[in-house]
Amino acid sequence: xxxxxxxxxxxxxxxxxxxxxxxxxxxxxxxxxxxxxxxxxxxxxxxxxxxxxxxxxxxxxxxxxxxxxxxxxxxxxxxxxxxxxxxxxxxxxxxxxxxxxxxxxxxxxxxxxxxxxxxxxxxxxxxxxxxxxxxxxxxxxxxxxx
Amino acid sequence: xxxxxxxxxxxxxxxxxxxxxxxxxxxxxxxxxxxxxxxxxxxxxxxxxxxxxxxxxxxxxxxxxxxxxxxxxxxxxxxxxxxxxxxxxxxxxxxxxxxxxxxxxxxxxxxxxxxxxxxxxxxxxxxxx
Lengths: 146, 129
Hints:
The structure holds 2 protein chains of 2 kinds. Chain A has helices at residues 32-46, 51-67, 99-106, 115-119, and strands at residues 20-27, 76-83, 87-95, 108-109, 113-114, 122-127, 137-144. Chain A is α+β, with helices and mostly antiparallel strands. In chain A, a hairpin with a 3-residue loop joins strand 2 (76-83) and strand 3 (87-95). Chain A starts with 19 loop residues before the first strand and ends with a strand. Chain B has helices at residues 9-19, 21-25, 30-51, 95-102, and strands at 2-6, 59-68, 71-78, 105-110, 116-123. Chain B has a 5-stranded antiparallel beta sheet, with helices on one face. Chain B has a single domain, classed as Histidine kinase-like ATPase, C-terminal domain (Heat Shock Protein 90). The two termini of chain B are 26 Å apart. By secondary structure, chain B is an alpha+beta fold. In chain B, helix 1 runs antiparallel to helix 3 and helix 3 packs antiparallel against helix 4. The longest helix of chain B is centred in the N-terminal third of the chain and has 22 residues, at 30-51. Chain B is built from 4 helices and 5 strands. Helices cover 36% and strands 29% of the residues of chain B. Strand 1 (20-27) of chain A pairs antiparallel with strand 1 (2-6) of chain B, so a sheet runs across the interface.
């Protein structure tokens, strides 16, 4: 069996992955890690993500699903994934006030450094503009495919 | 668990794959998991094929909730005109009967916010070790 890369097939040469956006809201608990890993891997596969970046994304997801529940504003975590031809933006919410910074700090691995900072191409914290005193935060990470 | 994504064919696989996580997180036997995934796939396919006109892409929402230790509810919602007979339907009309055969109960209707919904419940059997 031969496996011709998609871009080399005549019917695929001009096709670009279509931008996609998926929102996953999942309760803190045993479902969060497996469902996030499964959803993001399918979303990235559909976006023609290179294998090395897919691997990076899975490591990011493992770190996020391990630590995000401790900083959630309530009993749920919301992951929003938006892909285009260049990469994926992953937003992690609805985190409690200062939760995004604490989540980032939790991803420090002795001898390795901060997993989230090392693997993502962009990283920022956004605060909800709502008047909610809990001031929900989002951690926003970007992985570029190139 | 709630998923919200554009109603397009490629995203049906995203939903189907997400439901495989139930087997990893909870002790759900293979046959039950297979029934859940097939019924959810059919419901999502109906949304992609029937809910929106060809030139318009709308949302697809899937929510799964454990009602009890042995019962799972899955609701598939869209913003289409609703479920009804269509003379120009491209399908064979097997989707809904298949869903009925795979679920403990199924309700077709409209949510309070006027979205079309298919509400399915599944009995959960513990996985055999």
